[in-house]
Amino acid sequence: MVAELTPSRRRDGGQEAARFREFCALLTLDNGRPFALEPFQDMMLADYFAGTTETVALLGKKLGKSTLLAAVALFTICDRADAEVVVAAASRDQAMLIFQAARGFVRRSDDLGQLVAVHGGMREIRSTRRGGRVRVIASDVETADGWLGDLAIVDEYHRHRSSDLYGVLRDGLGPRGGRLLCVTTAGEDEDTPLGRLRASALALPSIRRENGHTRARSEDGSFAFHEWALQPGDDVHDMQVVKRANPASWWTPAALQRRHDSPSMTSAQWLRFACGIWTLTEAQWITPEEWDACAGQVSSDREADWYVGVDVGRKRDSTAVVAAAMIDDRLHVRATVLLPTPGRPVAVADARSEITRMHSDLRVMEIVYDPHQFQESAEILEEQGLVMVEMPQSDGRMAPAAQTLYGLIRDGRLVHDGDPELRSQLLAAVPSETERGVRISKRKSRQRIDAAIALAMAADRAVKNLHTEASEFVWEVFQ
Predict the structure, then answer these.
(1) Rounded to 10 degrees, what is the CA torsion of 112, 33, 247, 24?
(2) Segment 296-321, tens digit of pLDDT
(3) Residue 69: phi, psi to the nearest 5?
(4) How far is CA 451 from the centre of its chain?
(5) Which of 26, 171, 446, 456 has its C-alpha lying 20 to 30 A from 332's C-alpha?
(6) Tens digit of pLDDT for each residue in 37-84?
């Protein structure tokens, strides 16, 4: 029973690790299976449970990071009296993923539900018997200033722009003998807080490398570093080799091969997220060669099902209205990009007029829009009989849409007419990593990518609404 955990203030590393393994065995994953610690997770937490103040681990994507950190957070408030645990990331939404994983554990366990209570509105989980709590804090330093606690969980440190938050949390560990656990993926730029921390760790005299795993430890035992990554010269396309950087049992060579071959996987993403190799993902999304290879005769088929994406710009941005239809297993694209003039942004009424024009020329099934910028216009167009579909530009919606669009372009299954403004905006878009996947964003603030966003929205709806067997196959491939 979870309720039989004995509260602890004195720490014995071996005993604490054993209690944690027992605790995990009583947790249930969202697939209904018990949570069993993997050997690499045991290895990663060995220093932590031995009392190491700072434990930093670099792991690839999809290795159970959020689930593991959620279990550690819950165990701490169940095992220690009055334990204070914070979860911090570069954004609150990102930190909430660990909170949501912990909340799921509580919801699926009657025993655990007797020990803790979830306060979702407060972003807290409180121990009803030991007096401790787990809480999510904002990424700014002011929120964490003055924190004194037992455990600070720092998630995805590669996204932090400065080391200030990390430093404040680390400094707050002393009075209570607390510990910091930082688990993140490889970054893009080594001249970052994580890059500099990693460089310091790799310069320690006590370092060991074996089968893809690097472990370094300070002489006084207060700092430990773990990294699962391939080394220079390793074959990143040999799945037996890539397995070294993916120690979880579910990543078999066959599963890695499927991930490697996915149409949405770029080479830079593969290097960072599957191989643990630091590389700049912003430099690659769609190449000019890939886009230009898709130029051709765009269909004007009035019998096809067309889906229109609209992205309304602000001030210096453009406004894009893009229609897309799957015809003969290829996405045909018709785009209108409205550019601002000096001193005058694009009027929303101009976007409505272009949508109405497209609707008269084509059989438009849906107009997809971001309600944050186009809600009033959407209501006007609905009164005219058009079908309006909200698509908030959240990570959860835009990341899959971007991946679908990328797969179509990479496989040469998109047709455009060579419009230079559309080309410019597609090539200005860069991949931006999120917890929901990779979406597109700007490299520079003055660049315009409205057409890329509108195209991704239209492509997402066009592919999702296919009904033929062949089209259903395409949808499976792109997801």
Answers:
(1) 20
(2) 999 988 899 999 999 998 777 899 99
(3) -65, -35
(4) 23
(5) 446
(6) 999 999 999 999 999 999 999 999 999 999 999 999 999 999 999 999
- To which residue do tokens 């909200």 refer? 390
| CA 351/CA 375 separation, integer angstroms | 13
Q: What is the pLDDT of residues 199-209, one digit of tens each?
A: 999 999 999 99
pTM: 0.63
User: What pLDDT score was predicted for residue 93?
Assistant: 74
Distance of CA 105 to the CA centre of its chain: 21
Tokens of 258: 């499927």
Q: CA separation (Å) from 299 to 94, 362, 409, 410, 411?
A: 42, 11, 17, 20, 19
Number of neighbouring beta carbons within 10 Å of residue 106: 18
DSSP one-letter string for 199-251: HHHHTSSEEEEETTEEEEE-TTSSEEEEEE---TT--TT-HHHHGGG--STT-
Name the percent of the chain in helix, strand, coil, to the closest 5.
40, 20, 35
Q: How far apart are CA 420 and CA 436, in angstroms?
A: 31
DSSP H or E stretch at residue 176: none
- Which amino acid makes up residue 63? L
Question: How many Cβ atoms from other residues are within 10 Å of residue 104's Cβ?
Answer: 17
With 0-12 / 13-18 / 19 or more C-beta atoms within 10 angstroms meaning exposed / middle / buried, residue 143 is middle
Running DSSP on this structure, what letter comes out for residue 34? B
- Sign, Cα dihedral of 247, 250, 256, 262: negative
Q: Cα–Cα–Cα angle for 206, 280, 242, nearest 5°? A: 60
Rounded Cα gap, residues 320 and 305, in angstroms: 20
